[in-house]
Specification:
535 residues, mainly beta, 2 domains, seven-stranded mixed β-sheet, five-stranded mixed β-sheet, 34 strands, 11% helix, elongated
Length: 535
């Protein structure tokens, strides 16, 4: 096992923890009094950092993991707790759990939930149930929270990114900017670390959003029941936390791609009346332990059977692309489109919105065109649109209704398409309603495949007959069957290829090829905008 692939970061926090790292490369050359300067931070190949933002005044406590590297990683965290009380008149503190001490964090009881209740501790930690309550998952308004990415990108640095009242165990203090309050970071904010106030690179970081959670955190026992129901049997992989009710390890149930950050494992640590009513003083602390590894490595003492083994195997499977679930509303930067090309089944669908959650729309991934270019199509129609109105309607949608981040990723295509024209008879009718038999005999029509054109226009478009034929003819891309070509909700949609002076090609409500009068416009049909995006 090499250190480049395997990183076990024990990130320890008392009441919170966090760590960040960064490296810089500087080049200076002097020649005939000319100066060439370069300051660039090269991204790490592999690396993860635990973030812990804590504010004791508001009781906000955010714990999550950032992948600052380029390769996907697997993540698990484990919480343990300690509490001691000094009643008035007593000369010393007494631990709530006998045999534990403030100094020996390795002896603190793990947070072991009941199999059917994440909020209820069992085992030795049950003694804390009357004193504190941990809030698991993101308790916000539905949009993913903002955070400040780590400055510290040294993969084997065990320091966490601790902000606010959090104390990194190794540094014995904060290692990351912020107050630890829930509203500390927001869209458009940044922090300049050029004075090296915090560990890592002396650069400016701009805020980013964590991944939205596909579902609330759950126990391993609850996760195991997902396979028992048709509506959830394919949802065992996703962006959510699963806590083993035997060991206390909390597993991120997906691969974490480079540049992504998990949703919150913890969102608050609140003291209960049992603590407030103590006649004297108390000390309460949470310790966070992490195990972050490359996908081709193994966790320490990884089991080879049981629910934990099943979960880990799912995370390593082709279904675990690291991307949000199809129905989860996410910002465009939450997706890794190169990995989406490897997805299977429903994982080729995704829902994008603005960072504030507005303009949410579902898309379907169609093709990896290489060089970072990806063909996608809107899942629903722009309805009540005839063939003549098609381009105008698509342009208006692109300018006013497409989420801004996705618009910014749009690659240029030809300002105008040379479509050619082909009738049903010329296409080789009957053409099986799936692919076109004689397309190669009509070179102008066959050549109308949508590709990136440098110097072209950044815009949306309708697919051509050649596009649909190619995407239906080749395995593992595009449309796998006629049902895949149907939009959701149900309807028919125009292609940009004419069939005659009065008719054009379209996809029927059943997903078949056909031709239709260009003037047709109903609530049951319209146009599906497609895009090539660059990432």
């Amino acid at each position: 096992m090499t250190p480049e692939k395997k990183r076990k970061l024990r990130n320890i926090a008392l009441l919170a923890l966090l760590g960040l790292i960064g490296g810089t490369f500087a080049f200076t050359a002097f020649n005939q009094q000319a100066i060439n300067d370069r300051l660039r931070e090269n991204p790490a190949q592999v690396g993860g950092r635990v973030h812990d933002y804590f504010n004791r005044d508001t009781e906000n406590k955010d714990v999550f993991v950032e992948n600052f590297g380029q390769e996907p990683i697997m993540v698990r965290l484990r919480l343990s707790e300690f509490m001691e009380i000094q009643e008035r008149g007593q000369s010393s503190f007494t631990p709530v759990v006998e045999g534990t001490s403030r100094a020996n964090t390795q002896g603190w009881p793990y947070y072991i939930p009941a199999g059917d209740s994440l909020m209820t501790r069992t085992g030795a930690g049950a003694a804390f149930n009357i004193y504190s309550n941990l809030t698991f998952g993101w308790e916000g308004n539905g949009t993913a929270p903002w955070y400040l990415p780590t400055f510290n990108t040294v993969y084997n640095d065990a320091r966490t990114a601790a902000a606010g009242h959090a104390r990194d165990y190794e540094a014995d203090g904060t290692t990351h900017p912020g107050t630890g309050r829930a509203d500390q970071w927001a869209e458009g904010r940044s922090f300049d670390n050029s004075n090296n106030a915090y560990p890592g690179a002396g650069v400016t970081r701009h805020t980013a959003q964590t991944l939205p959670e596909d579902r609330e955190p759950m126990t391993l026992q609850e996760w195991g029941t997902l396979r028992n129901y048709p509506e959830t049997e394919n949802q065992q992989v996703g962006n959510f936390w699963v806590i083993d009710h035997e060991t206390g390890w909390a597993y991120w149930a997906n691969q974490l791609n480079g540049g992504q950050a998990t949703s919150y494992l913890l969102d608050a640590a609140q003291m209960l009346p049992g603590a407030d009513n103590i006649n004297g003083s108390y000390y309460y602390a949470i310790h966070v332990e992490s195990d972050l590894i490359s996908v081709d490595e193994e966790f320490q003492e990884e089991p080879d059977s049981g629910y934990v083994s099943d979960l880990i195997n799912e995370i390593r499977s082709r279904r675990a692309t690291g991307n949000p679930a199809p129905e989860t509303v996410a910002h465009a930067k939450a997706f890794n489109f190169s990995r989406m090309s490897d997805a299977i089944g429903g994982n080729t669908h995704f829902t994008v919105a603005n960072p504030d959650g507005t303009a949410a729309q579902m898309f379907r991934y169609l093709e990896n065109q290489g060089d970072g270019n990806h063909l996608i199509i809107r899942n629903d129609l722009l309805r009540n649109t005839n063939f003549q109105e098609m381009d105008s309607r698509i342009n208006t949608w692109f300018d006013t209704a497409l989420p801004a981040d996705l618009r910014a990723m749009t690659a240029p295509v030809a300002p105008e398409f040379t479509t050619g024209i082909i009738s049903e008879e010329e296409a080789g009718y009957p053409y099986s309603d799936w692919i076109v038999n004689n397309l190669t005999f009509f070179q102008e029509v066959a050549a109308d495949r949508t590709r990136v054109v440098q110097g072209g226009n950044r815009r949306a478009f309708s697919l051509s007959l050649a596009d649909v034929d190619y995407l239906s003819r080749n395995d593992d891309i595009g449309f796998w069957n006629v049902v895949d070509r149907a939009p959701s909700p149900w309807g028919w949609w125009w292609l940009r290829t004419p069939a005659s002076s009065t008719q054009a090609w379209y996809i029927t409500t059943g997903g078949n090829l056909g031709t239709l009068r260009r003037i047709e416009s109903t609530v049951y049909g319209g146009v599906r905008p497609a895009l090539i995006i660059h990432q």
